[in-house]
Amino acid sequence: MAEEKGSVIMGMIWMAIISLLLFWLPAVGPLIAGIVGGKVAGSVGGGFMAALLPGILLSLVLFFAGTLLTGVPIIGVVAGMGVFVLILINIIPLLTGALIGGLLA
C-alpha cells in the first residue's frame, strides 16, 4: 500500500492558522504560512490548491451572503469582489511560500 504524502485540507488549515498568527508581518507572515502549508500539503500542486481554495470559497460565500441579506445582487457582487481583491494582495507571498514548501516536501 502506498502511503499518502500530504493533505490539502490540513495544508489549508495550517496556512489559515499561521496567517492569522503572523498577520502583523505583511509579506513574511504569508510567506511562512505558505511554506508550512505547502510542506503539509505534500506537493506543489497541493500547496497551490491549499492557498487558492480558501480565498475563492470565501469570496463566493460573501457574494451569496451579500445577495441574500440585501436582496440586491449588485451588493453581493461588490462584497465578493472586494474580498477577492484583498485576498489577491495577500496571495502572492502565500503562493510563493506554497511553491517553496511543495518543493521541500
Task: Describe the protein.
By secondary structure, the protein is mainly α. The protein has one domain (8-104). Helices cover 83% and strands 0% of the residues. It contains four helices and no strands. Helix 1 packs antiparallel against helix 2 (28-41), helix 1 packs across helix 3 and helix 3 (44-70) runs antiparallel to helix 4. The longest helix has 32 residues, at 73-104. It is elongated. The model has no long low-confidence stretch (mean pLDDT 86).
Brief sketch in words of this structure:
The chain is an all-alpha fold and 105 residues long. It has four helices and no strands. It is elongated, with a radius of gyration of 15 Å.
Number of strands: 0
Number of domains: 1
In whole angstroms, the N-to-C terminal distance is: 20 Å
Principal-axes geometry comes out as elongated
Which runs of at least 5 residues are low in confidence (pLDDT < 50)?
none
Describe the biggest sheet? Answer: none
Helical proportion, percent range:
over 70%
Rg from C-alpha positions?
15 Å
What structural category arises from helix and sheet content?
mainly alpha
The overall average pLDDT, rounded, is 86
Beta content: under 5%
Count of helices?
4
User: SSE order in H/E notation?
Assistant: HHHH
Name some characteristics of this structure.
105 residues; mainly alpha; 4 helices; 83% helix; 0% strand
SSE topology:
Blueprint: H1 8-21, H2 28-41, H3 44-70, H4 73-104
Helix pairs in contact: 1-2, 1-3, 2-3, 2-4, 3-4
